Amino acid sequence: MVSRVIPVKPFDLVIFGGTGDLARRKILPGLFRRFIAGQMPSDARIIGAARSDIDAQGFRDMVRQAVSEFGGTLGDKALAEYDELDSFLAQLDYVTIDAMGEQGWSELRSKVRKELVNAFYFSVAPSLFGDIAERLKKHGLADEDSRIVVEKPFGRDLSSAQELNETLASFFKEKQIYRIDHYLGKETVQNLMALRFGNIMFEPLWNANYVDHIQITVAETVGVSGRGAYYDKSGAMRDMVQNHLMQLLCLIAMEPPSQFSSDSVRDEKLKVIRALQPVAPHEIVRGQYDATETTLSYREDAENPRTFTESFIMMKTHIANFRWAGVPFYLRTGKRMSNRASEIAVVFKALPHSIFDSNDHGRNVLSIQLQPDEGITMDMTIKEPGPGGMRLVNVPLDMSFADALGPDADDVPDAYERLIMDVIRGNQTLFMRGDEVEAAWAWTDPIIEDWKARNDVPKPYDSGSMGPLDSQALMQRDGRAWRELKK
Ligand code: NAP
Question: Residues lining ligand 1, CB < 6 A?
Fold first, then answer.
């Protein structure tokens, strides 16, 4: 299968925080991959902007280093070994700028070509968003067609998210604001929509009549060492559930939009968030990882021996609408878990009656893997091959992209690069709208406030496990179990 690359229009992309961790790890290597794929026009330019006193050549050297350190491989060789690197670097420029002062803004103004698509990526701390937005307007850099890209976190509760949205709204229209949640840029997540709305066979089954429950897991093996103090102010609920897990839940649960356009899709997602039920305390398990011989405990990593912040959370929630009445959605995410794996599993109901000797041959499960490899499997019951009568087995029908796309699987863009190209194209479908973010906080806030009011203490769990045993017990109480995740 040959993947098609459609070049975008010529653009000037300014990356505020171009020297930072996110830019070096994700944004710039991702843009280089798009360059190699032929998607970046030869007259497009990427302008790094930060306080560091370097010139364009210094920035190019830094990007060369970042590509070799974080670029990984493309096909059978390292990204940094591609001959196109020099031509890509030649399209980079840099401006020393202070988001909070006046230095550098007129130089940036002189570099940005207004006749092209202009996008400004705010890869800086959210506290600088307002300063940058204001100066973009004040210095005549942004007009009605400019786009801004903002990174999570979008606030830490409803009121701070509202404040952030109001600040951005005083300088830009909603159609100019691209709030990135990189989970939405994953190939499989978009395939989830293709699967649901591009095939006739799933939609009739996609409801409380046929679906028993849904599991969403985002498990990480890393802890928070190195950024413990920062993480300790948010925790798994704010850092993962409020954004990534809720976005995945929305795509699974939403009604079919009338068309695949940004507002139709986002309207439907918003309805799901608004229909989410409050979660009772006994349907939540919070945890903190313990130390091992070689790694520190969460409390040590957070440098806060008395912290009540969770590094793991599991919860059961419901969506109050016709489609999902009574269907539990189980969500879990955590650090220092046994494997790095993200999966959404739609577990269908058992057969109403089995004509075979035994009815315990397994359920149909549609599982969508996001990490470590992206792919979709459907567990089906078939006859075990060979003689010996009608013995049944449950086997997965497997669609991993590596198999389906053959050698072109390497050309599947990473989430960041795909989303940046969507910004240039002006397509907001895979970005969060301001009202979605606020609705998500409106659901999250009371849960967090309840923990605070009760001084809720997270349960310890072994590093390298799947979280506190209570999270298995909560499932067992419902007569269900967490699926084993692919290693
Ligand atoms: P970082 O490594 O601390 O980088 C911050 C960048 O901002 C640096 O380039 C810094 O460069 C620049 N900067 C700081 N103050 C500035 C000022 N007054 N004027 C102009 N530039 C300034 O942070 P990061 O990890 O890249 O994160 C950037 C944003 O992305 C944050 O909002 C973060 O929450 C979000 N995010 C990051 C990741 C990730 O994987 N890193 C993932 C998701 C979201 P100078 O010091 O040279 O000015």
Answer: 16-17, 19-23, 25, 50-52, 97-100, 123-126, 128, 151-153
